């Protein structure tokens, strides 16, 4: 209803099926565009530069942060991730809604800066199910799984900071990706 587009934030512990939901929303919601984050994490097979992320060095990331390019940024699983302020502004002036797939720390910053952003926290049906889903990804070592579970526990405690909490009881097919 406003002249400019809205900001939609989605966060979820890994194993909640977030990537499937994000892909579906982008395919089905007209006028919704994805905010492509900057990251220092190495590119995974199948990921495209400028489409999934902008893959940058730590030095470049630090320069961008210092120049005030980020609406928020955080360290997640040992790598830096940041949302481009410029991209959000560009989408909004074009009348588009912007979807931010960011973690709970990032959302904590966004809700202070962009007070009218709408946020969704996606949850697995239970902690046991989350454990099961993460173990099913055979690519991860037991140590990685343990670390992800403890991070998930910490993140889930912050569900009250979100406008909506959605429980994903469908097995996330996209968790293979
Ligand atoms: P992945 O490396 O698996 O793509 O993402 C790891 C986590 O980083 C996910 O929880 C994702 O939501 C989060 N993330 C991705 N981009 C950003 C960002 O720009 N800022 C923040 N704070 N988190 C991000």
Account of the 3D structure:
- The protein has six helices and nine strands.
- It has a five-stranded parallel sheet, sandwiched between helices. Strands 4-3-6-5 form a four-stranded mixed sheet.
- The chain has helices spanning 18-28, 58-66, 85-93, 104-113, 127-136, 142-156, and strands at residues 7-11, 32-34, 37-39, 53-55, 70-76, 79-84, 97-101, 118-123, 164-167.
- By secondary structure, it is an alpha/beta fold.
- Strand 5 and strand 6 (79-84) form a beta hairpin.
- Helix 5 (127-136) runs antiparallel to helix 6.
- The structure holds guanosine-5'-monophosphate.
- The site of guanosine-5'-monophosphate has 13 residues, from strand 5, strand 6 and helix 4.
- Guanosine-5'-monophosphate is lined by residues 37, 41, 72, 74, 76, 81-83, 101-103, 105-106.
What attributes characterize this protein structure?
6 helices, binds guanosine-5'-monophosphate, 177 residues, four-stranded mixed sheet, five-stranded parallel sheet, alpha/beta
Sequence of strands across the biggest β-sheet = 2-7-1-8-9
- Please trace the helix and strand order, writing H or E for each element: EHEEEHEEHEHEHHE
Bound molecules: guanosine-5'-monophosphate
Q: Estimate percent helicity.
A: 25-40%
What overall geometry do the principal axes of the alpha carbons give?
A: globular
How far the N terminus sits from the C terminus, by CA atoms, comes to 36 Å
How confident overall, as mean pLDDT? 91
Radius of gyration: 16 Å
The largest β sheet comes out as: 5 strands, parallel
The low-pLDDT segments are none
Number of helices: 6
- Strand runs, count: 9
Structural class by SSE content: alpha/beta
Strand content: 15-25%
């Amino acid at each position: 209803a406003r002249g400019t587009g809205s900001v939609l934030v989605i966060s979820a512990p890994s194993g909640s099926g977030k990537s499937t939901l994000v892909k579906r929303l982008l395919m089905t919601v007209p006028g919704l565009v994805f905010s492509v984050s900057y990251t220092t994490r190495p590119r995974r097979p199948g990921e495209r530069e400028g489409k999934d992320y902008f893959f940058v060095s730590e030095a470049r990331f630090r320069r961008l942060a210092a120049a005030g390019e980020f609406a928020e940024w955080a360290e997640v699983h040992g790598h830096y991730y940041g949302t481009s302020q410029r991209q959000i502004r560009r989408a909004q002036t074009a009348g588009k809604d912007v979807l931010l797939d960011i973690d709970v720390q990032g959302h904590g910053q966004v809700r202070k800066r962009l007070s009218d952003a709408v946020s969704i926290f996606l949850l697995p049906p239970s902690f046991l199910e989350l454990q099961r889903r993460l173990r099913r990804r055979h690519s991860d070592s037991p140590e990685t799984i343990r670390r992800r579970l403890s991070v998930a526990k910490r993140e889930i405690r912050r569900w009250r900071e979100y406008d909506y909490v959605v429980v994903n009881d469908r097995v996330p097919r996209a968790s293979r990706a």
